[in-house]
Amino acid sequence: MSRNPRVAVCGATGAVGREMLKVLEQRNFPAAEVVPFASARSKGKKVPFKDGELTVQELTHECFEGFDLALFSAGGGTSETFAPSAAERGCTVVDNSSAWRMNPECPLVVPEVNPHDLEWHKGIIANPNCSTIQMVVALQPIHLEAKIKRIVVSTYQAVSGTGQKAIDELETQVRRLFNGQEVVPQVYPHQIAFNCLPQIDVFLDNGYTKEEMKMVHETKKIMGDPSIRVTATTVRVPVFFGHSEAVNIETETKLTAEDCRALLATAPGVEVIDFPEKKAYPMALDATGRDEVFVGRIREDESIENGLNIWIVADNIRKGAALNAVQIAEKLLEMDLLRVNR
Ligand code: A2P
């Protein structure tokens, strides 16, 4: 494509949509124009961009006319309805919802792991689940070196992953509790303040939650290896930003903790913070607003022959969502795959 793309940000009033605008600006994405879209409720609202503000437009099937790229973060139903309308009009979609992730026609991409999958896109590219993104960025180098056989992951996920209304809910509950007032959970099934909820998304017939099974299926698709065995427990914790994960892996060949540290120290998108003697390890508060996937607490699992325990933390709204989507867009440009030949 010879000219700069016109970019639609769909869901621009939401937590991820706003961050998408911020990331486009911070990375100086070469857009000819950026236009925010949301529901009819938000039509005419202003969202900050660069030195000024942009006016939110209503998302419709026709609104993609003349656009080259659409970044979607407006919920699964909205993506299912509108992403095909964009693609039909020659506007390539990078979708942050779960609507298209397991569709065999849609690549599921983390640029550090499987940029080559962009080559077969047909107009809709899926951005993976936030917990999965940060995990595969850290695990792919280990997989390439020692072949991962099995992953056991437990997550500690921030409320911002549920959207702006969940950020507001945690804040409101904390305020009310400090003032001796009752709280009435609205977004989550139980009080989230000062609590941990072992349920993210709905329960499935096998007793796992949808979030847990997303981690299982998406990891295999992104890493391109259906033989990796994955099991997950996903937990919502009263943290505003930043998902943390305790990950146990079993590899085919031995990788010492020292080798793993050295390997990850040069891995793209990863920063190792692993100095127990200084009490230095990745934490959600420090990861907030940062682009890197932070890894620490790297230890050999002494209960099996070839095992490692690691702790992975990233900003779920940035690398887990907005940043990864913009990085996909940058790769599309770099690989000349933003096919818009009008
Ligand atoms: P709106 O603010 O107009 O409802 P979050 O995940 O933070 O809750 O944000 C969801 C985003 O998706 C918001 O920008 C929201 O817009 C947008 N959205 C939700 N439903 C629709 C819809 N039916 N059409 C267009 N945008 C939608």
Index terms:
single chain, 342 residues, alpha/beta, Rossmann fold, Dihydrodipicolinate Reductase, domain 2, 2 domains, 6-stranded parallel sheet, 8 helices, 14 strands, 30% helix, binds adenosine-2'-5'-diphosphate
N- to C-terminal separation? 10 Å
Find the structural class using helix and strand composition. Answer: alpha/beta
Point out poorly predicted stretches: none
Mean pLDDT: 97
As a percent range, the share of strand residues is: 15-25%
CATH architecture of the largest domain: 2-Layer Sandwich
Please describe what this structure looks like.
30% of the residues lie in helices and 23% in strands. It is α/β, with parallel strands linked by helices. The chain folds into two domains: 6-128 and 321-334, NAD(P)-binding Rossmann-like Domain (Rossmann fold), CATH 3.40.50; 132-316, Dihydrodipicolinate Reductase, domain 2 (2-Layer Sandwich), CATH 3.30.360.10. Helix 1 (15-26) packs across helix 8, helix 3 packs across helix 5 and helix 3 packs across helix 8 (318-334). The protein is globular and about 60 Å long. The model has no long low-confidence stretch (mean pLDDT 97). The structure holds adenosine-2'-5'-diphosphate.
